[in-house]
Design brief:
Helix 3 (39-54) crosses helix 5 (91-115) and helix 4 packs across helix 5. This protein is an alpha/beta fold. The strands form three sheets. The chain has an eight-stranded mixed β-sheet, sandwiched between helices. It has a four-stranded mixed β-sheet with strand order 7-6-9-10. The chain has one domain: Acetylglutamate kinase-like (Carbamate kinase), CATH 3.40.1160.10. The protein has helices at residues 3-22, 33-36, 39-54, 66-75, 91-115, 152-159, 183-194, 221-229, 237-249, 265-271, and strands at 26-31, 58-63, 82-83, 86-87, 120-124, 131-135, 144-149, 163-167, 169-172, 178-180, 198-203, 218-219, 254-259, 278-281. It binds adenosine-5'-diphosphate and N-acetyl-L-glutamyl 5-phosphate. It is found in: Cytoplasm.
Length: 299
């Protein structure tokens, strides 16, 4: 027999304990615009999500799309400006943000998941008032900070066998305003409100790097705080790790920051001993560990 088939069968067999451990788990996956890549990479991501659903996990996809917003704004002659990793969003910009995120990007992901045999439903933070926001910072304009989460719609969708795909656009508390929410912030708020078992933040680096540039495979929340304070964590990694800490405070069991450009990144993290990227886990003794990596004291 061809040896590759034996290896394939062994790989599947080795994944069994991980599949059992995660059965029924809620896994929120943040799919960033930089991690999306070409159609092949999108199709591969979609297969990973469908496989997760097939083995009894409830995947919840929350996406970004910053580079795609930049493209359309550029075509319209509108300049993109960011302050501390967040887009300065005018009334004019927020219309483009909603068109790109709720339209183009959301439906591209929905279509890819459906093509892979899943049943995806695309919504935004506006649907069923999933995410209600207040202005984040006057300097940023129509950028929202989630203050009220109504996640029953997500539970209804995943319990019905569907895969929610969420665009980070939300309603304001007043005047039916539309707010642009950073994708990491939205994914963290959704994972926190769901008390998710895992929040996977897919990005374009292999994880959180320490002082000498090495990727840290497991990080204590206190170490993350120290690395933000001493500048080891900088730029776009600041909102990402702050999101991770907040989500852990809200009851998420563990957050993993990993490279979404690596083939089958989600499967590598969930179903192999190796794992992927940097895992930051809850230190709250009331949050029961589930499916942590081999060798972790909480396993
Ligand atoms: N300690 C660190 N470890 C890893 N990346 C870091 C660190 N400090 C800053 N960064 C930067 O953060 C970036 C990831 O944030 P960002 O580009 O906003 O991701 P995304 O677009 O996927 O949301 C990396 O590409 C890297 O340049
Ligand atoms: C407030 C804010 O910055 N919103 C983001 C929303 C998209 C996003 O977060 O996309 P990525 O995950 O691909 O970066 C933006 O306008 O770019």
């Amino acid at each position: 027999m061809n040896r590759d088939w034996i290896a394939t069968a062994r790989t599947l067999s080795e994944a069994l304990p991980y599949m059992q451990r995660y059965s029924g788990a809620v896994v929120v996956v943040k799919f960033g615009g930089n991690a999306m890549g070409d159609d092949d990479a999108m199709a591969e991501f979609a297969r990973d999500i469908v496989l997760m659903k097939q083995v009894g996990i409830h995947p919840v996809v929350c996406h970004g799309g910053g580079p795609m917003i930049n493209d359309l704004l550029g075509k319209l002659g509108i300049e993109s400006r960011f302050v501390r990793g967040k887009r300065v969003t005018t009334r004019e910009t927020v219309e483009v943000v909603e068109m790109v995120l709720s339209g183009l990007v959301n439906k591209r992901i929905v279509q890819a998941i459906n093509d892979a045999g899943g049943r995806a439903v695309g919504i935004s933070g506006k649907d069923d008032d999933l995410m209600v926001c207040e202005p984040d910072d006057p300097e940023l304009g129509f950028v929202g900070r989630p203050v009220e989460m109504n996640v029953q719609i997500i539970r209804d969708l995943y319990n019905a066998g569907l895969i929610p795909v969420i665009a980070p656009v939300a309603t304001g508390m007043e005047d039916n305003e539309t707010f642009n929410v950073n994708g990491d912030t939205a994914a963290g708020a959704i994972a926190g409100a769901l008390r998710a078992d895992r929040l996977l933040l897919l990005t374009d680096v292999s994880g959180v790097k320490g002082g000498s540039g090495e990727v840290l495979t497991q990080i204590h929340p206190d170490q993350v705080r120290a690395m933000i304070a001493d500048g080891t964590i900088a730029g776009g990694m600041i909102p990402k790790t702050e999101t991770a800490l907040k989500a852990l405070d809200e009851g998420v069991r563990a957050v993993v920051i990993l490279d979404g450009r690596v083939p089958n990144a989600c499967l590598l993290e969930l179903f192999t001993e190796h794992g992927a990227g940097s895992l930051i886990r809850s230190t709250d003794p009331r949050v029961k560990p589930r499916g942590l990596r081999q060798g972790d004291s909480g396993l």
